[in-house]
């Protein structure tokens, strides 16, 4: 058999093995996440969900009301996207630990702000004391394509150290907006 054909088959086998490994990990994560809840908690959640959906369907008179509400939400989303420049493309959440008053979740978030792409990965620790809930971000990792500007790399590094998501989103919004203005200006002069 031709060596290039063998190599193509080997590459395909490796790709399939990697896909199997990723799917196995995803399955294990989902199975592990479902084991955090007892049967009683699951049944309680199902009953609560059923009550909510029954209440929602009683509250809406017709499908046209639902369609109008959906259109209103889409309008709001497009307004906020235009206002901030953020467009989120994916989000995943994995519960690492769950107790009565403490939850640790791992989040992965990706999107664009104007034309700049970003990916975030962080852990969110939520603790509930009495009626007060506090949240702490840790292990923040930011991936951005910042080849052209070393200041962006410095900003990303310092934001990761502080673990401040609010600072990241505010600063990225302003930077990306002016980045677009500069890009359009330079294209105008070319």
From TrEMBL:
Coiled-coil residue spans: 6-33
Gene Ontology CC terms: chromosome, centromeric region; nucleus
InterPro entries: CENP-P
Domain of life: Eukaryota
Record key words, sorted: Coiled coil
Presence of keyword Methyltransferase: no
GO biological process, one term: CENP-A containing chromatin assembly
PANTHER family (UniProt xref): CENTROMERE PROTEIN P
Protein name as annotated: CENPP protein
Organism lineage: Eukaryota, Metazoa, Chordata, Craniata, Vertebrata
Gene: Cenpp
């Amino acid at each position: 058999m031709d060596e290039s054909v063998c190599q193509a088959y080997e590459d395909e086998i490796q790709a399939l093995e990697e896909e199997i490994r990723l799917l196995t990990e995803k399955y294990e994560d989902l199975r592990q996440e479902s084991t955090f809840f007892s049967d009683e908690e699951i049944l309680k959640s199902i009953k609560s969900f059923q009550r909510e959906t029954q209440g929602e369907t009683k509250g809406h008179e017709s499908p046209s009301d639902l369609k109008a509400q959906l259109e209103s939400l889409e309008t709001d989303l497009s307004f906020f996207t235009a206002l901030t420049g953020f467009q989120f493309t994916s989000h995943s959440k994995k519960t690492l630990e769950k107790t009565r008053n403490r939850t640790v979740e791992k989040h992965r978030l990706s999107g664009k702000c104007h034309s700049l792409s970003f990916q975030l990965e962080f852990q969110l620790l939520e603790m509930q004391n009495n009626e007060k809930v506090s949240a702490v971000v840790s292990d923040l990792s930011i991936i951005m394509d910042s080849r052209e500007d070393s200041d962006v790399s410095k900003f990303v590094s310092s934001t990761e150290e502080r673990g401040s998501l609010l600072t990241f989103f505010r600063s990225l919004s302003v930077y990306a907006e002016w980045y677009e203005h500069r890009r359009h200006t330079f294209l105008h002069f070319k």
